[in-house]
Amino acid sequence: MYFTLGARLEYNTFGKFQPEPTARLLVLPSERQSAWIAVSRAARNPTRFDTAVNERVFSGGSTFLSVDGNPNQKAENVMAYEIGYRAAPTDKFSWDIAAYINDYHNLQGFGNPAPRSIAATAQLRGFGACAVCQ
């Protein structure tokens, strides 16, 4: 059994302090099997474009498109949860299966009526499987 803790610590003038920790547990029931679980946090700090852009596109003398940054934009972040299992029954064949949930927060988007910046949340659930034969 292996337990791993890690963290990336970042400071940015736009997003401020953003810790990005991870915790992983790997279990090896045999030489040919492994199972794991993991929890991680990741962040995308706002950029100068996200916070300070101020662009207008004109068409026929009137404003066609207006893009304004949000000086209060927070860092986008995700909490990621994963669980998986891998087996290699023979030297020439292996397979794995994994499931994950990603919770996103403060996603930057465009609202209506424009120009208005919104912070959205989303959840992504997934499942993956793979088999390799050599």
Could you explain the architecture of this structure?
With 134 residues, the chain is mainly β. It is built from one helix and eight strands. The chain has one helix spanning 48-52; strands spanning 2-12, 16-30, 33-44, 54-59, 62-68, 76-90, 93-110, 117-133. Strand 7 (93-110) and strand 8 form a beta hairpin. The protein starts with a strand and ends with a strand. 4% of the residues are buried. The model has no long low-confidence stretch (mean pLDDT 83).
The gist of it:
The chain has one helix at 48-52, and strands at residues 2-12, 16-30, 33-44, 54-59, 62-68, 76-90, 93-110, 117-133. It is mainly beta and 134 residues long.
Notable characteristics:
134 residues, six-stranded antiparallel beta sheet, mainly beta, 4% helix, single chain
Largest sheet: 6 strands, antiparallel
Q: How many alpha or pi helices? A: 1
Distance N terminus to C terminus?
28 Å
Total strands: the figure is 8
Level of helix content? under 10%
> Order of strands side by side in the largest beta sheet?
1-2-3-6-7-8
The unreliable regions are none
Q: β content, as a range?
A: over 45%
Shape: elongated
Mean pLDDT over the full residue set: 83
Which structural class fits the helix and strand makeup? mainly beta
Radius of gyration (Å)? 22 Å
Name the helix and strand elements from N-terminus to C-terminus, one letter apiece.
EEEHEEEEE
Sequence-ordered SSE layout with sheet pairings:
Blueprint (H helix, E strand, L loop, with lengths): L1 E11 L3 E15 L2 E12 L3 H5 L1 E6 L2 E7 L7 E15 L2 E18 L6 E17 L1
Antiparallel strand pairs: 1-2, 2-3, 3-6, 4-5, 6-7, 7-8
